[in-house]
Amino acid sequence: MAGAYETLATDYDWMFDDDALAHGRAINHPATARLLQRISPTSAVLDAACGTGVDVAALARRGFRVSAADGSEAMAEAAAARFGQERLAIPVLCSRWADLPVATGERFDVVLCVGNSLVHATGRDAMVQALTGLRRMARAGGHVVVDSRNWEKLHAERQIVQIADRVVTRGGRRCVVLYAWEIPDRLGDEHIAHLVFVFDNGGQIEPHEHVITFRPFTIGELRARLELAGLREVDTDFDASRDRYAVVTVTT
Ligand SMILES: C[S@@+](CC[C@H](N)C(=O)[O-])C[C@H]1O[C@@H](n2cnc3c(N)ncnc32)[C@H](O)[C@@H]1O
Fold first, then answer.
1. Per DSSP, which regions of the chain are E strands?
2. Measured from the CA of 126, which atom of ligand 1 is nearest?
3. 87: alpha, beta or left, given left = phi > 0 and alpha = psi -120 to 50?
């Protein structure tokens, strides 16, 4: 995983349209949005898979006290650069989920692991360790939010190639992102995603391909692993017919 994000970091923001850059993306999915509306506006929030910091910056602009972390140095650096440009004083840590509790003594009202990130914890034991690390970052009674693609749906439909729903135009360049999946027969086996960014630099075409591996899970597996990590589900927007879902939990 780590290697792929080290190079993906430079192209990553092309996956966000201007509305998502301004208002965040994963934080607006239903169950996550409900929690963020319900809690105090001064709550301390950690985005533990901050990527290039789009959601954290949006939460800071809403007034939350936010911190950012990511396991990839390049992603953490890209997030820090965004915060610097926007003059947002947001601490950024480069740490994997399982290591967070020793990397910092700070604890949070809400810990986010969103934007389909947990799928990079490869398998049951790694996922329980990651979730345990995230749980330990929350204050007693605090929330941990995890979201995911609906892997059972993707696996059943086997739509191997998908195209982002719009072309993004920025700074004189245009870009469309293609997603091509290598989907093995068993849902729990390693999957491969090819992310192809096709740039149009004023008539000159430049494709960039990034290859990411991951190990999907069912919602049943996620629920069992949340429980093993000491997290109790209190809300979800799971719907078998939808592509994505979030699960909101509290520490037990
Ligand atoms: C799909 S991206 C999502 C980023 C961001 N949340 C978003 O919505 O755009 C997954 C992120 O998780 C990070 N990540 C993967 N495994 C990790 C781990 N074990 N610990 C911490 N971060 C990890 C990657 O570096 C990457 O930035």
1. 44-47, 65-70, 92-94, 108-113, 138-149, 161-163, 168-170, 173-182, 191-201, 204-214, 231-236, 244-251
2. 19
3. left
> pLDDT by residue (tens digit) across 203-222?
899 999 999 999 999 999 99
Assess whether the C-beta atom of 29 lies below 6 angstroms from ligand 1.
Answer: no
CB atoms within 10 A of CB 219: 16
Could you tell which of 55, 117, 131, 211 is best to mutate to test the pocket of ligand 1, judged by most ligand atoms within 8 Å of the CB? 117
Burial class (CB in 10 A: 0-12, 13-18, 19+), 41: exposed
For residue 120 and ligand 1, the question of a CB distance below 6 A is answered with yes
Ligand 1 neighbour 26 (Cβ under 6 A): yes
* E strand or H helix that includes residue 132: helix 124-136
The continuous run of DSSP H or E covering 223 comes out as helix 219-228
Structure tokens at 187: 């849902």
Distance CA 133, CA 182 (A): 30
pLDDT of residue 164: 85
Q: What is the pTM of this model?
A: 0.96
